[in-house]
Amino acid sequence: MREPAKQGEHCVIGRDVVFGENVTLGHNCVIEDHVRIGADCYIDSNTIIRGGVTLGDGALVGANCLLGECGADFRGDPRHQELPLTIGEKALIRSGSILYGGSVIGDHFQTGHQVTIREKTEIGNHVSVGTLSDIQGNCRLGHYVRLHSNVHIGQLSVVDDFVWIYPYVVLTNDPTPPSSDFAGVHVHSFAIVATGAIIMPGLDLGQDCLIGAGAIVTRSVEPYAVAVGNPARVISNVRKVRNRVTGEPVYPWREHFSRYMPWEGTEFDAWYAALPAEEKTRYTLRDLQE
Amino acid sequence: MREPAKQGEHCVIGRDVVFGENVTLGHNCVIEDHVRIGADCYIDSNTIIRGGVTLGDGALVGANCLLGECGADFRGDPRHQELPLTIGEKALIRSGSILYGGSVIGDHFQTGHQVTIREKTEIGNHVSVGTLSDIQGNCRLGHYVRLHSNVHIGQLSVVDDFVWIYPYVVLTNDPTPPSSDFAGVHVHSFAIVATGAIIMPGLDLGQDCLIGAGAIVTRSVEPYAVAVGNPARVISNVRKVRNRVTGEPVYPWREHFSRYMPWEGTEFDAWYAALPAEEKTRYTLRDLQE
Amino acid sequence: MREPAKQGEHCVIGRDVVFGENVTLGHNCVIEDHVRIGADCYIDSNTIIRGGVTLGDGALVGANCLLGECGADFRGDPRHQELPLTIGEKALIRSGSILYGGSVIGDHFQTGHQVTIREKTEIGNHVSVGTLSDIQGNCRLGHYVRLHSNVHIGQLSVVDDFVWIYPYVVLTNDPTPPSSDFAGVHVHSFAIVATGAIIMPGLDLGQDCLIGAGAIVTRSVEPYAVAVGNPARVISNVRKVRNRVTGEPVYPWREHFSRYMPWEGTEFDAWYAALPAEEKTRYTLRDLQE
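Structure tokens for the assembled complex are given below, as produced in the milestone run.
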């Protein structure tokens, strides 16, 4: 065990804790047993890291966070065992967030405040999860997925790469509540789900589709379709949507927008064409022409 | 005052605090004056328990919780007095939850994370309140009520036994906002309110009714009715709803589902018939035939 | 630096911190460098106040709060500098709330629990922000604005004086998500936005208008109009809305309701007529007759 380069007052550090170089802890931090913290990490005050957590190099963890939280019966259950939580490099986890043990999260992960991520969640690289979002566990998020504030991802959901989900969206999973016959939603690559949409259990939202704000989606939506209303109806194709001011087309968005994306500074097609074949398989991209 | 069997670092314990046998405190806990904690409880790090709280045996309280929170003007108000909060046996209160003083909560209570429960809330036994749910106080929840994540229960709401409420549902209470003429919603036994439904003030949701996802409910709903849409319309009877895969009927759900329920392992009718007469009166069950 | 009149255990206080008379700190508080705390303040346990915060006299700050939070790259960014956060007199900030540096907030400010307020937010006097509300920054709230629980205010929003916004309302800002062409919503004075309404980017909600629960608003709404549905349609004028019990008119609400308002105890017209001319300009009130 290397000591932190610097730590605040009243920290409590358990056994078998390994710190990389240049780690700083705030005040009142609790680091439990069997934790691995990479180099150049900053852990802010009042944060608790439970046994079994591995945090990659360059992480920033805000105040009042709880990493590696235990399941339902935590301390009272004699069967309790540490569930490993692995977080990749350069994470930015904002204050008040709670991440359970039993998940694997990629590099460049970012959260807002007061986020909850339950166990058995698999998250790719460059994913952002907004303030107050609630990922219920037992689900999978691809690379470059961006969840805005207060998104609810039900168990068994699958969200492919490059998907954008906006505030107060819910991916549901119980077709006849209450039941045990859960069926997750599958959101395909490049889809956009606008504010307040609710997606019924087991549906597919096709690649590059656009779900309008407040839509209650009761049937699967085809790729490139625009669906709005309660219940949602397909009213258009994304290629027909125009910027209100400029009149220019705006979808598929990957042809017009690149912020936070790996093709920032170039174009999507050029970026994708230049990927080595073995890297192309990293992304869940299928035929990109309609 | 018995000492905790075990406590972490930097805890602060007030006067007239009584611990049962085998209580464990994490680090940095603050237990204020006049608190009663039952046997076999675990209180995790950074949790604050204010004066006047009584916690039953076998409770697990997660990190960063605040039990017995004071009302509006808390410390600055010279009229401030401790408001007792009583929580029954075997509670599981997950991290980040805030429960005000001035409420009474039954046995086997369970919360998710970051829950808020205001004063003058009366909660029965075996109730579960999901992550980020916000119970505004001055309301009543029966036995075996299950609120999923991010449910908003307005003041004056009454929720009877065996009700299921799903994420982002709101029970409103002000017919002509802003006003002081509040009227609470009454959700009757066995009703199901699906994701994102909003219920207008003062309405009754009848026993065993099913409110669809995203419904904006502007009139009371009869028992056994299915209501969907904005504004909500009754479109069917719950007995006509079928499991999409098996084609089997699924409602009333108590005839087909028993997880978390007292008739788990038997059937509802058998369980109910076998209840002693004096126990039957514990539940708000009326004529269960349509 | 004056010492706090009273402080709990394990507090950490930085350099160049100035306390007014009669300040009390709870346990485990962290007050960083360059903080100004006015007289008669109470800061509850586990709260962190970062560098650059100025808190007016008579503030009550609940437990587990974080005032002056840093932006995206906080501690890891060598360019990090303290962003001043200024909060006026008599604030009541409830537990778990996170307020970023870089905002200016008026007197008599009040929050619920777990509120998030990002940087570059300008807030007037007598504003209340409910539990779990999320103000995304770069926006402006006038005087006497009241946000209920779980309201989401997108960047670039402008909310004028005396506006009421109810739970799960979202003011959106991206007309063609994802894009960088943000356009904020402007909610004019005295408007009421009921539960769960979603307002599309760049729209105006006119003075005294009433947006119904669950409305998906896709066009600007005229003053005094009542809009409901998905998509929202104007169905009436607020002057035609009656109290269901008494049959009395209830809107414009300022003529019938005064709780929390400066005309409490008198009438709006009398209060407004008696304002000195130079004070009238403080409010964003235009022609108040239809």
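The mean pLDDT of chain C is 93. Chain C has one domain: 6-255. Further analysis is deferred to the final report.
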